[in-house]
Design brief:
Blueprint: E1 19-26, E2 31-38, E3 43-47, E4 51-60, E5 63-72, E6 85-94, E7 98-105, E8 108-119
Antiparallel strand pairs: 1-2, 1-8, 2-3, 3-4, 4-5, 5-6, 6-7, 7-8
């Protein structure tokens, strides 16, 4: 499956469910938090107080991959890469309610990003 193909819907309990997730992220420069929505067609949308995130995700068994664009939308403190626009590639694993992954920005390939997502309960 290509990274940009939609995520497959699968009812296996070990697979990540579409929905809202709290996201925490950090680099050696800084850390932050936000909220993302993972859709069943493989899209990612979300943000925090100064950045918006868009992209695509996929899952094969417990492995999760994503490509995300982060773009500053409001003035504020420096981001965790010290830049206002980023193209991120992330890889990690899920236990169906959370994701732990690492990745890098195309604009700063030597600076590692650690990301954790935790599912927010359905309303």
């Amino acid at each position: 499956m290509s990274l940009l193909e939609p995520a497959e819907i699968n009812h296996d309990r070990s697979l990540l469910a579409a929905g809202k997730y709290s996201v925490w992220f950090k680099t050696s420069i800084g850390e932050g938090a936000g909220v993302v929505e993972l859709s069943c067609d493989g899209e990612i949308r979300g943000g925090d107080s100064t950045f918006c995130y868009t992209g695509h995700w996929q899952q094969e068994r417990q492995r999760v991959q994503a490509r995300v664009c982060a773009k500053r939308t409001l003035p504020g403190p420096p981001g965790v890469f010290g830049m206002d626009e980023l193209d991120l590639t992330l890889t990690g694993y899920t236990d169906a309610t959370s994701v732990s992954c690492t990745g890098f920005a195309r604009q700063s390939p030597g600076l590692r990003l650690d990301v954790t997502l935790l599912r927010i309960g359905d309303d």
